[in-house]
Specification:
mainly beta, six-stranded antiparallel sheet, four-stranded mixed sheet
């Protein structure tokens, strides 16, 4: 019999990975992400993409703040986890828009498949750098979390 010391969750140190909630950060071109329910109306102008149509699928809307170039919706598969807890993803492009603008959003039908992100997105910012983010759902309240990778 091996005795294992119990450590309360409060004592765990969080992994130093930035988490954003889909709000504007350091650039004029940014993407806000939210559930489409309550946001999309008949007057909303958007493109539609179905990543999967499982019974648990939900609709998520991507809304640009500024002119977002080279927007990609991505499929993610965790290949490895670094010693510091950072996941390493295999990335596959599922959908591409040359531009995502404030006048025309993107609605994606997708499923949050557990605790590890299965989907993400990327775009080119105002400085010409590619920004990549994971899409995650909070296990506490179901809100959408955006994690940079």
């Amino acid at each position: 019999v091996t005795l294992v010391e119990v450590q309360p969750f409060i004592d765990y140190v969080p992994v130093d990975v930035p988490v954003y909630e889909g709000t504007a950060q350091d650039t004029a071109a940014w993407v806000n992400v939210d559930y489409a329910d309550g946001i999309v109306t008949e007057a909303t102008n958007y493109d539609w993409f179905t990543a999967d149509d499982s019974p648990d699928a939900t609709k998520v809307i991507f809304m640009a703040e500024g002119d977002v170039r080279d927007f990609k919706f991505l499929s993610l598969f965790c290949e490895d986890v670094l010693e510091d807890g950072t996941p390493v993803f295999a990335v596959e492009e599922m959908y591409h828009l040359d531009r995502l603008t404030p006048e025309k959003h993107l609605l994606v039908e997708m499923t949050f498949w557990g605790t590890m992100p299965s989907y993400g997105y990327s775009f080119v910012d105002d400085n010409g750098e590619t920004q990549r983010f994971t899409l995650e759902m909070s296990g506490m309240d179901g809100s959408i979390y955006i994690g940079k990778f």
